[in-house]
Amino acid sequence: MSPVHFDEMAGRGSGCRDAYQIFKHWLKTAPQALLEGRREEAELLFRKVGITFAVYGDEEGEEKIIPFDIVPRILTGREWGSLSRGLEQRVRALNLFLKDIYGAREILKAGVVPQDLVFQNPYYRPQMNNVVPPGGVYVQVAGIDVVRTDEDEFYVLEDNLRTPSGVSYMLEGREIMMRLFPDLVAQQRILPIDNYVNELLNTLKSMAPEGAPQDPVVALLTPGQLNSAYYEHSFLADRLGIYLVEGRDLFVRDDMVYMRTTQGPQRVHVIYSRIDDDFLDPLAFRPDSILGAPGLISAYRAGNVTICNSPGTGVADDKAIYSYVPDIVRFYLGEEAILKNVPTFRCRDEEGLNYTLAHLDELVVKEVHGSGGYGMLVGPHATKEAREDFRHRILANPANYIAQPTLSLSTCPVLANGGLEPRHVDLRPFVLNGRDGVRIVPGGLTRVALKAGSLVVNSSQGGGTKDTWVLSE
């Protein structure tokens, strides 16, 4: 009988898939003590470098070291080729969707996407209507969460188009693997990811407004040190060689954005924003925000500064909109989606609601605007009481929920309890989209559910990460 879950290393049997042949041979010669020692070294390196994250709502409020597993996830060049084509297609279509709903709204007029899902969406920003960023690019950095169920079966689980995080873990994880296992890395034909920093910088600079100098000034806007992803903000600013600023460091004059420096005001042309839209500008959004800069949206609308990603992109990574992405791809590109969606039941629809309520013990139920693994029910693993609690929540506000079948997610070996054990994984590739086209570094951040049997990979829910190797053909 075939295993219930497809294993990235063993496939459906007890053998070894081609991508892992070299690793398996190396593993046979590696003493257990070596592996355990390298795992401890990896944790020490993460602590030394300061690779941390914070969990909102944690009573201790302390930053934590993200768990890192030293067993790599390995993909073949063929697998990656298909994935990358699907990722590029998806991001292109979602970008066209954003350009349309803030412009002509042809997809809404055609009835492909219900109007209320856009206009009543909390991430829809009417301030962005008829505002077209340079090159018509709204999404410069996307993190697309992908899961695998079989040899050639990949599904998109979620589109992250606002402030996708995790790329620092991807880059640091690769550096640590090269440092700890140089002999193993040398035996493999692993495609590099260290060019991501240059690709990101080129993407950001390509988005400079008309009239900007050839070398535009780029700044990363962070909410500050208390933000859960602050480590990544400072890491990226340092690697990119750009300014790390908070809202108080910026001011707007004559619809132009300036940064306060010791040498006086410095014009800023591109802002890589890691702040939620609501807090960008108290004059445009939340008046109580102290994280952004007054007048920032006015400067953006005037075309004097580019904000990456564009305000209002969140409407396209909503979980209800997600269910329409295959239709969005078809509408704008005239193509079928290369990467499949997970089948999704919309509780806003009577048929979807009835099915969900009748199959709560089989489905994963998610809040339409939820994230980070919060606000969801994993039916097969939930108690009867938890399912009943969710039933009442759904009935109170059906439009706030979608439901999906519990896919048989692939597993990947992790070093645990003195040996290798399977754990469920997903993959977040990072897609860069600038005026000069789409760039995707080979691989991405593999997130792993370190608890046996768990399907939740988020670091805030006890998940960890591992390096992702894409082999050249």
UniProtKB/TrEMBL annotation:
Classification via Gene3D superfamilies: 3.30.1490.270, 3.40.50.11290
Concerning InterPro entries, the annotation shows: ATP-dep_Glu-Cys_Ligase-2, CP_ATPgrasp_2, UCP005522
Where does the source fall among the domains of life?
A: Bacteria
The Circularly permuted ATP-grasp type domain extends over 72-449
SUPFAM superfamilies membership = Glutathione synthetase ATP-binding domain-like
The protein's matches in PANTHER family, at most eight in alphabetical order, are given as: BLR5612 PROTEIN, SLL1039 PROTEIN
- In its UniProt entry, what is this protein called? Circularly permuted ATP-grasp type 2 domain-containing protein
